[in-house]
Amino acid sequence: MRGLHALTLGDLLDENARRFPQRTAVVCGEERLTFPAFHQRARRCATMLSDLGVAEGDRVAWFAQNCHRYLETFFACALLGAVAVPLNWRVTAAELEGLLDSTAPRLVLYQRREVGDVADAARGEGGGSPWIAIDDPSSGGYDARRDAATSGLPQLDVDDDAPVLQMYTAAFTGRPRGALLTHRGLVAQNLAQIIALGLGAGDAYLCSGPFFHIATFMTASAHFHIGAKNVLLPRADGAEIARLIDAERITGALIMPPTITDVVAAAKAHGYRLASLRVPPTPERPDNREWLEMTSRLPGIPAGYGQTEVHGLATLNLLALDGMGAQGVASPVALVRLLDPDGDDVPPGEVGEIAVKGPLVMAGYAGEPSPPEQTGWRRCNDLGRREEDGTITFIGPRTELIKTGAENVYPIEVENALRAHPSVHDVCVIGVPDATWGQSVKAVVEPAEGATIDVDELIAFCRERIASYKKPRQVDVVAALPRTATGAVDREVVRDRRGGGGAVGLGTATATQHR
Amino acid sequence: MRGLHALTLGDLLDENARRFPQRTAVVCGEERLTFPAFHQRARRCATMLSDLGVAEGDRVAWFAQNCHRYLETFFACALLGAVAVPLNWRVTAAELEGLLDSTAPRLVLYQRREVGDVADAARGEGGGSPWIAIDDPSSGGYDARRDAATSGLPQLDVDDDAPVLQMYTAAFTGRPRGALLTHRGLVAQNLAQIIALGLGAGDAYLCSGPFFHIATFMTASAHFHIGAKNVLLPRADGAEIARLIDAERITGALIMPPTITDVVAAAKAHGYRLASLRVPPTPERPDNREWLEMTSRLPGIPAGYGQTEVHGLATLNLLALDGMGAQGVASPVALVRLLDPDGDDVPPGEVGEIAVKGPLVMAGYAGEPSPPEQTGWRRCNDLGRREEDGTITFIGPRTELIKTGAENVYPIEVENALRAHPSVHDVCVIGVPDATWGQSVKAVVEPAEGATIDVDELIAFCRERIASYKKPRQVDVVAALPRTATGAVDREVVRDRRGGGGAVGLGTATATQHR
């Protein structure tokens, strides 16, 4: 809705400048912005976008690493009723071109450092939308254009049920689809995260995960909402993380296990204090004892069930730490049911499809008609079980999904890339347990008649087509893939025979490392 | 909105039965209901209401003390899209008649014990809506009718922007007006209270204040939302409060200072343990030391600015305990500005009218056209000041208001009652400081020509017309009231000469005793 009862992200930006005039909102490299200073920046950015033709409903694409300029752009879009579209900066030029085709942005903001070549290749000759480099120090660059714009943009009446963020997720089809996340959904998620994590204005969050993933963004957004500080890093770097935890008195961060080793080493080498950071009491590992000694404790290992399509987490274990189900109870802003194929509730103890209702459900996928479920419940395509105490256990995706680190890899996408190779007749991609990343990608290949598979060459072939983290780390060559009676590859048998496993739910994987 | 993205109070009722199947929702006398048991009761009540003709938008009046049946009725109304109207059970029959006239309920639920005579007098001969006694044990009473109804009411698609609660407030005009509170506003207030008070499922709230006031209701509602327990008392009774704090491990309660003395005495006499209850570190008083020794501490004295028209509190000091402004910062679900008469922001340090935007703003007053501010901000008719640190200090109502205990008394209403007496020419009613209740009501009377005022008789005359707590406790008789140049009574001069003072803000007064 618009008007008197609306609460948009633009409203939140304005209010935080009023209620937290002396608090720090964002720290990014040399930049250190109070809420009023950040507010002025975002308002200038909104004028800049408006002058470039961005209006209500338009998309603004962001192809760059974490940066305060992204947060400025996001809130500027919120003020205009426009939609920010953060893109994964690790994709290939071909993938970026596809994402931009489907986004149809009115404006592209991109970064020259590290990813400028990919951006240039994807941009091609095309006239089309303006492209502005965020790290171009000239008068045509982002900073100069923003600073030349007025902060006195007229107040627009924005609909808080409309999307403000288009976040790509490749779940279920293997083809990236833009989940449309709304003002109302993001505000609801902020409040749920504030409650679950017990956040206050004194907290400080280290944004070392990427903003194009919902896990980092929803946590950063909740910190902003309650008046806490967000400290941004362009990518996860152990030494820099250790320095910032000390310097900024960081209380929360999503740090993956391999990086923890580097953080511990840097803290020891430089005498950094990490005691402000609250981390889960994770199981024992060689470097774990030191990590736990140096940091403070969360009450448990944060977990939950979620997906981008419900603005992040729809269940939260921190609200029921002693519950039987590892993913806890429905978020205070979500309704959760477990349904059989007919749409009836399955009884406690039985597995059903997770379904969600309420403000957390996305507005739909960009460019696709609203699903028929608009008047009912969102079917999440994931399986869960309700325990006798009301808590929920995530069982697994209804469709195949490999989780490697915080990334989702969808076998169908990797299989499509590998099948394009002339030596490949058919292929089945599975996830196998990986001590570092939870799972890694394995391809089981049936060669074309008379062909020989050169494994290194096949992986390189794949790497040219899709992002590096999606390529198989292992390739097994088999004479014939097992098949079902209908002739389809029998994925279950491949998994059993070829070491498949290690799968965890999206919610679990992202939330376990939550802060 | 309706459908997929809606989150109504009926949805919350359903969800809590799923996620908290083993937790206690409500304790009231001998009744002890888990969330699923309460859910069944409320669903049966909804069928009963529906069978009695209650449909979307209809009013159901409640004229009774605190009771689990009110909460059943409230959630039943939520399921139906109907509106619960809790009425002050301390009003006179004439006042009740007026309230019922303006409510036009489809159904009246009332209590025979204590207030049956007033109910009967107000009902008169009238056919009209059905009246059902909640304490009638016959087959025509509430319990028998509810238990005879099915819990299998079809799921209705209710609009969460629509009102679900009509709560009377006499602010500003002296005439009671029904503030229309919405599903969305109540859910937003729940989340804000959960954040401010740090509530969890292990909490237990003692509802000793009346549900027809927003302070008690919003706190009880927040406890329900997060899976905590509500323990109900029909009225504040020190000995019973002490017993329940011990027996139910109460963590929060709104207890007025005079009652605290009784609670302490009962705890000492019977050995009740009060340590589960968290209370503010209030200033020293004779019985205060023992009270503080027996109980646990809140981090500060909860306070905030609010009014019924914004679903309770719009600012919360618990989010900024060391802030300069006693009423803290804007709630996480509210936008707050301080405006001059032209609608422009006044600078920090200057007094302006408090204005609120967002889901906390009511849908309007029952039976009145939507105010022109529907597209802008709600002007609260109260004055405040923003401090340099962004926190807010409540200054006072723009119109006269007397606070005696938790009750609002509006001078204009008392003056109207007194002016009807033949011996009274004119009168000015003011609030004077009262050690027990904050303020008490004083009337300064100018007699009619040649008339003599019999003070006791005048007070009795008033008592017949309005609720007892509104009658003057002191009456000064003066030859002539001071008047302004235009001939109006000069209220400021009366206050100065006749001991006026002791006023505190609505938010402060209710929230200081918050739990």
How is the topology of this model organized?
Two copies of one chain form a homodimer.
Chain A: H1 9-19, E1 24-28, E2 31-34, H2 35-51, E3 59-63, H3 68-80, E4 83-86, H4 93-103, E5 107-110, H5 116-123, E6 131-133, H6 142-148, E7 163-169, E8 177-182, H7 183-197, E9 204-207, H8 214-225, E10 229-232, H9 238-247, E11 252-253, H10 257-270, E12 278-279, H11 288-294, E13 296-297, E14 306-307, E15 312-313, E16 315-316, E17 329-330, E18 335-339, E19 351-357, E20 378-386, E21 392-397, E22 402-404, E23 407-409, H12 411-419, E24 424-434, E25 438-447, H13 455-463, E26 474-477, H14 491-497, H15 506-512
Parallel strand pairs in A: 1-10, 3-4, 3-5, 5-6, 9-10, 9-11, 12-13, 25-26
Antiparallel strand pairs in A: 1-2, 7-8, 14-15, 16-17, 18-19, 19-20, 20-21, 22-23, 24-25
Helix pairs in contact in A: 1-2, 1-3, 2-3, 2-6, 4-5, 7-8, 9-10
